[in-house]
Amino acid sequence: MSTSPRKIIHIDMDAFYASVEQRDDVSLRGKPVVVAWKGERSVVCAASYEARKFGIRSAMSAIRAERLCPDAVFVPPDFVRYKAASRQMHEIFHRYTDLIEPLSLDEAYLDVTAPKADLGSATAIATQIRAEIREEIGLTASAGVAPNKLLAKIASDWRKPDGLFVIRPHQVEAFLQPLPVSKIHGVGKVMQAKLTELGIATVADLRQRELVELEQRFGRFGRRLFECARGIDERTVEPNQPVQSISSEDTFSIDLPLSALHEAIQKLALRTWNATKKTNRIGRTVVLKLKTAQFQSITRSFTPQHVIRSEAEFTQIALALCERVQLPESTHYRLVGVGLSGFVERDEISLQGELFD
């Protein structure tokens, strides 16, 4: 660990989309709420904690979610309201630091090593931020406080929902060793299975392995495993992320109806997906852009709460967004675009083992 550890807070809103819906509609409070569009290809954007008790999770099909909980209340997502709540959240963050690295609409890292408002400790700042989010936005957030990003993210999940957990520098080793290796962000099911084959079940087991062995078996990610097992993470909080969005678009020679756009969407999705290979970061939000023959611009987007695993899945989501275009069937379009936005670092993706093994 560094001799002068940073003070990092990871803020993660609780069941964000579903919580916004329950906040704004009192009749939904206490009920299993599923945020999803209707349709055979629709997937769950978010589920309230009441819905999660039935096994409903984000990214599963809406049809399966309905089977798991026939009494669930399905609500179509409203990203205008979610983005508004996210902006309010960031306004609160900026009262304490400008070193803010957003990961998505509902979570971010904050470096409060040298805060604007010194409340005496990073723990006190996290407590105050959570209180202000509750009072001003009407939502709850969980927070993790630790010497680095790796540990802060683990900590924020420790007492969810509406919890605060602190890992102090002298507690790092004792905290990490009993944890299953799956708690290390980047260790997905595939990587976990490989580690299990080696007899590595806990972080303590992982600490027994030499760096040379891990690098030989897992390449660059082997070094990452070695460092994570020791609570080492030198990544800084990056407020200015280089890649925010990547997109491709085409303007047609003749205006086309929505039903005739599928081939174009597939080609654009492939082009965009290939372009993402030029960056080390991962896009989370799929964006469909349309412009009508009358030059009316329409944008539809979807942010699954899991990593988009392939070009085929990316394309499927882009095609599914067509279902959210509610203009008359007679409407013709002169332009279509497909993009990815909401980029995060690869190290932040919990399914990294599955993606890049």
UniProtKB/TrEMBL annotation:
Cofactor binding note: Binds 2 magnesium ions per subunit.
GO molecular function: damaged DNA binding; DNA-directed DNA polymerase activity; magnesium ion binding
Catalytic reaction list: DNA(n) + a 2'-deoxyribonucleoside 5'-triphosphate = DNA(n+1) + diphosphate
Cofactor: Mg(2+)
Record site: Substrate discrimination: 17
One example of a Gene Ontology biological process annotation: SOS response
Uppermost EC category: transferase
A single cellular component GO annotation: cytosol
Keyword Cytoplasm in record: yes
EC number: 2.7.7.7
Keyword terms: Cytoplasm, DNA damage, DNA repair, DNA replication, DNA-binding, DNA-directed DNA polymerase, Magnesium, Metal-binding, Mutator protein, Nucleotidyltransferase, Transferase
Chain positions recorded as Mg(2+) binding sites: 12, 106
Active-site feature positions: 107
Annotated signal sequence range: none
Location of the protein in the cell: Cytoplasm
InterPro entries associated with the record: DNA/RNA_pol_sf, DNA_pol_Y-fam_lit_finger_sf, DNA_pol_Y-fam_little_finger, DNA_polymerase-Y, DNApol_IV, IMS_HHH_1, Rev_trsase/Diguanyl_cyclase, UmuC
Domain UmuC as annotated: residue spans: 8-188
PANTHER family reported in the protein's UniProt record: DNA POLYMERASE KAPPA (PTHR11076:SF33), DNA REPAIR POLYMERASE UMUC / TRANSFERASE FAMILY MEMBER (PTHR11076)
Assembly information from the UniProt record: Monomer.
Function: Poorly processive, error-prone DNA polymerase involved in untargeted mutagenesis. Copies undamaged DNA at stalled replication forks, which arise in vivo from mismatched or misaligned primer ends. These misaligned primers can be extended by PolIV. Exhibits no 3'-5' exonuclease (proofreading) activity. May be involved in translesional synthesis, in conjunction with the beta clamp from PolIII.
Family, as annotated: Belongs to the DNA polymerase type-Y family.
The protein, known as: DNA polymerase IV
Source species: Aquirhabdus parva
